[in-house]
Design a protein that fits this description.
The chain has about 325 residues and is an alpha+beta fold. Helix content is about 20%, strand content about 35%.
């Protein structure tokens, strides 16, 4: 009798052990899947570094004089402007409201002679998922005069991603933005216009985030039900948040806006409606919302212009748009 009880007792312990092991394996599997999806780098393509040997990727705080001289052109510049035969940049810091309703944002008016001066770059010169660097590092390693964060394509596995004329991903799903070699910008539905059509039309870059703010000179909607992604950890984008946006005033004439936020007394951020109104007031005939929140960063002549995350602390991103001689 005692022996049977011992065997029963041992069997119970084994069952408990098996159950614990099963739970651990399930939890471990879930944790690995989340890490694989959102943390572990997956490099699909390594992109040739056109700036290799011409920039020190560790130097992100160089002076305006250093940044302009590295381009090897005759240019004049200060902390807020840059002027050469091919590129004109003027940045303004704007503050509106007060107290808890104060908004601080930065507007860069950019006039280019050649559309090829507006480029894109991947973090670590690699296309894939979960590959990140801060905007200033990507900009510095590409000899950028000016840069903003892009669409954080590496957080998603869909969208049409064409960069510097190369198709890296062709999974149409949302409203997107395209830049062309003639200096124009167009917003479009990825499911209605193919990558092949875009390439024939001379596309240089596409960004896939959204929503479209202005199309054909008109604000597109009231943005009350906009939904960009359903990925784990996303927060609503309807409320006032830090923002990054690009607009076209005319061919080769762009306006870039970065709005700081989540810092009461300095800047609450903007709603999408406020951002669309601003882009229209600035004269944009096409305008598109890029990745915002902690990603929102504006870089100019070796320094970060805005206050990322309200802490002067950049967040790693997967890509940038930048201006280069």
């Amino acid at each position: 009798m005692i022996q049977i009880d011992k065997r029963k007792s041992l069997s119970l312990k084994q069952k408990v052990g098996i159950m614990i092991l099963a739970v651990v394996l399930v939890i471990g599997g879930v944790v690995y899947k989340l890490a694989d999806r959102y943390l572990i780098e997956h490099v699909e393509v390594v992109v040739a570094d056109e700036a290799a040997g011409t920039a020190d990727s560790n130097n992100t705080t160089g002076s305006a004089e250093t940044a302009s001289s590295s381009a090897g052109v005759d240019a004049t510049s200060d902390d807020w402007s840059y002027s050469s035969d091919d590129i004109q940049i003027q940045i303004d810091q704007v503050e509106t409201g007060s107290g808890s309703d104060k908004i601080t944002y930065f507007v860069a008016d950019v006039l280019l002679k050649d559309a090829n001066s507006l480029k894109s770059a991947f973090a670590d010169n690699s296309f894939g998922t979960n590959i990140t660097e801060v905007t200033s590092e990507i900009a510095s390693s590409n000899d950028a005069i000016f840069a903003i964060n892009g669409d954080y394509y590496g957080f998603r596995e869909d969208g049409v991603i064409i960069r510097n004329g190369t198709v890296y991903r062709d999974e149409p799903v949302r409203d997107a933005m395209a830049l062309f070699g003639d200096g124009t910008m167009r917003t479009y539905n990825e499911e209605e216009v193919s990558s092949d059509e875009l390439l024939v039309q001379g596309v240089t870059n596409t960004l896939s985030f959204g929503p479209i703010l202005i199309q054909d000179g008109q604000i597109t909607s009231d943005f009350s039900s906009v939904k960009i992604d359903t990925n784990f950890g996303n927060r609503s984008i309807q409320n006032a948040n830090p923002r990054t946006a690009i607009g076209m005033i005319a061919p080769n004439h762009y306006v870039f806006v970065v709005v700081d936020g989540r810092n009461e007394g300095y800047s609450r951020g903007m709603t999408l409606t406020e951002l669309a109104d601003l882009m229209q007031d600035l004269g944009a005939t096409e305008a598109y919302n890029l990745d915002g929140g902690g990603s929102s960063t504006m870089y100019f002549m070796g320094r970060v212009v805005n206050n990322p995350q309200g802490k002067n602390q950049e967040r790693g991103v997967s890509d940038i748009l930048y201006i280069k001689e």
